Amino acid sequence: MRGTSSTSFAEVLRRAEAAFAADGAAPETAAEELFSVADAIDSSNQLVRTLSDAGRPAAVKEAAVRSLFDGRVGPRTLELTLDVVQRRWSEQEDILDALELLGVSTLLDLALREGVLEQVEGELFEVSRLIDGSGELTAALDGARDEPGRRAALLRTLLDGRAHPLAIAIAARAVGRRSELKPARRVEDFARFAADRRRRAFAEVSSAIPLSEPQQARLSAVLAGIYGREVQLNLNVDPDVVGGLRIQVGDDLFDATVLARLSRARSTLVA
């Protein structure tokens, strides 16, 4: 994604990660729902145009989404879908990519919690190379271009027992969506998305009361300035937190006062 779409997706992803971390939704279920929403929208060119049209009233988009998905997906998935369609996107396809990547992100979050994110990333790159290096497999996947479900099943069968289940699920999704991109490229794109996620820093944030979205944004900006890269916030509410806020990034543990001093010190050094 580029330009406006890149900005919109970054905002949606940040909110999605915080939301799923807060409500503890099952990642596999959330991913499947987001994939199904993307596929349902993709099945109608008119629907894609309607939901990606920046000039279309937000109320029209919301009504369309609710009529299609209310009661068919969980409240969190519905909320994220509404968030996606109400933002601006550079290309029509970007709205589908955003929904799909949100689904992939939930699976990568599970991989992170299980301590296998690096393994999943590496296996996705291996699957991409496997497809690229096998004329027979490439032909089989290309031959089932109009049968995405069959392509996904074929890859699942091939990888069963040879890769982590999360890597298999993500790779199967990569080849199981109708796309002009070659299957190997789609898997590689998801592997790069996993690599980007692994390079990000993660902060465990405990606060006496829930942080508002503006407070979360400011905290993310301060931490990004200190660590020189994006920092994902995993939020927890703990009334017993001394000082109202505690942040742990790796081995670093800060309270709000220490964090403020570090931020000011960094600004002084930069100046």
How are the elements arranged and paired?
Blueprint: H1 3-23, H2 27-42, H3 45-52, H4 58-69, H5 75-85, H6 92-113, H7 117-133, H8 135-143, H9 148-159, H10 165-175, H11 183-199, E1 201-207, H12 213-227, E2 231-237, E3 245-249, E4 252-255, H13 256-270
Helix pairs in contact: 1-5, 1-6, 2-6, 3-6, 4-5, 6-11, 7-10, 7-11, 9-10, 10-11, 12-13
Secondary structure: number of strands: 4
- The share of residues in extended strands comes to 5-15%
Low-pLDDT segments: none
- Residue share in helices? 55-70%
Order of helices and strands: HHHHHHHHHHHEHEEEH
Side by side, the strands of the main sheet go: 2-1-3-4
Q: Any idea what the shape is?
A: globular
Q: Report the radius of gyration as a whole number of Å.
A: 20 Å
Please describe the biggest sheet, giving its number of strands, its sense, and whether it closes into a barrel.
Answer: 4 strands, mixed
Mean pLDDT: 85
